[in-house]
Write a structure and sequence with these properties.
The chain is α/β, with parallel strands linked by helices. The protein folds into two domains: 1-56, no CATH class; 58-309, Glycosidases (TIM Barrel, Alpha-Beta Barrel), CATH 3.20.20. It is 33% helix and 21% strand. It has ten helices and eleven strands. Strand 5 (81-85), helix 2 (88-101) and strand 6 (104-108) form a beta-alpha-beta unit. Helix 2 crosses helix 3 (126-139), helix 3 (126-139) packs parallel to helix 5 and helix 8 packs parallel to helix 10 (297-309). The longest helix is centred in the last third of the chain and has 15 residues, at 226-240.
């Protein structure tokens, strides 16, 4: 019998009698070699009900990957992280897959759930955003969040705040994000909350930073010198007590809709991001099959992901949080 099988039997109580317990319930985690065993036990009169799941331990190294990374490549592909648009109906299944494959996720709320109209380009609504948080909380109770903590980089609180075409002609304000963050932190305890915008945007509202765990620095050449860009983001994030995810806008490399980065650009800009001491994760926008198949691109990614594996794993939780 394998060590994992023995562990499961022992934790289920199948290798010994179980005394009757008073009604109770608790969640537990048991490391076992290359696996982590997660369980939830309920004691009812003379009955023990267990649910047990074994998952391979999360990959070592800095979380690194692309947004929109295909689910079928979680286990067989080279990336250790992904940023995924996930609605409440699919988020738990995707987290389970990520845990099995050693992939860490940034959860992105689909825009249609955040608007007044229910359409992807409507005006942002705090009430709609809070309702979506409630739906996430219904499938991700506190014990489930604890089980999958190692697989969750964080939850992005929307994106493209200043894009009028994206949000029905009205930008999303810092005050709106603060209200949503405050509500979500209470409803989804333990999930880091972040914004996909540079830390200087956060700094302009003193009430916002204490509600967040991380901001974002996603480079394209229109943002000037790449080293200075990442250093500035790191400096401001440190001042605010938050972390910063770093990456490259692979599909819009120059900020002018003129195409994806070539292999040399990806390697040069990506190396600055993935090796920056302040980066809590290296996640770039976005996976595209045609770009992925271009000459030199997979070789460039191989080098970047190797660098990530050589760095210590980090969480994107604000400074001083548990």
């Amino acid at each position: 019998m394998s060590r994992l099988s023995s562990t499961l039997l022992l934790l289920l109580g199948l290798e010994g009698p179980v005394a009757a317990q008073a009604p109770a319930a608790f969640a537990w985690i048991q490391p076992s070699g290359d696996y982590t065993v997660f369980g939830h036990t309920e004691y009812v009169t003379n009955t023990v009900v267990d649910s047990v799941r074994a998952a391979a331990k999360t990959s070592a190294g800095l979380a690194a990957g692309l947004s929109s990374w295909p689910a079928e490549m979680y286990c067989g592909g080279p990336a250790s992280a992904a940023m995924q648009s996930l609605d409440p109906r699919s988020v738990l299944r995707r987290l389970q897959l990520a845990a099995q494959c050693g992939v860490r996720l940034v959860i992105v709320p689909p825009r249609r759930f955040l608007t007044t109209t229910g359409g992807p380009r409507g005006v942002f609504s705090v009430d709609s955003a809070k309702h979506l948080t409630d739906r996430y909380a219904a499938v991700l109770p506190a014990d489930t969040i604890r089980k999958y903590r190692a697989s969750i980089i964080g939850l992005n609180l929307g994106d493209d705040y200043g894009c009028l075409d994206c949000w029905g002609g009205k930008p999303i304000t810092r005050q709106q994000i603060a209200a949503w963050a405050d509500y979500t932190r209470k409803k989804l305890p333990g999930i880091p909350l972040g914004v996909r915008v540079t830390p200087d945007w956060v700094e302009k509202d003193a009430k916002l930073a204490p509600l967040l765990d991380y901001a974002w620095a996603q480079y394209h050449t229109g943002k000037g010198d790449p080293g200075k860009y990442f250093d500035t983001a790191a400096t401001v994030a440190q001042r605010l007590g938050i972390r910063v995810v770093m990456g490259v806008n692979v599909e819009n490399c120059h900020g002018t809709d003129d195409g994806a980065c070539n292999s040399e650009e990806l390697a040069r800009f990506g190396s600055l991001a993935v090796s920056h001491p302040a980066s809590c994760a290296f996640i770039s926008w976005r996976y595209d099959e045609d770009t992925w198949q271009r000459p030199g691109i997979q070789e460039a990614w191989s080098g970047l992901l190797k660098t990530a594996r050589g760095r210590p794993a980090r969480e994107c939780r604000r400074v001083g949080s548990a």
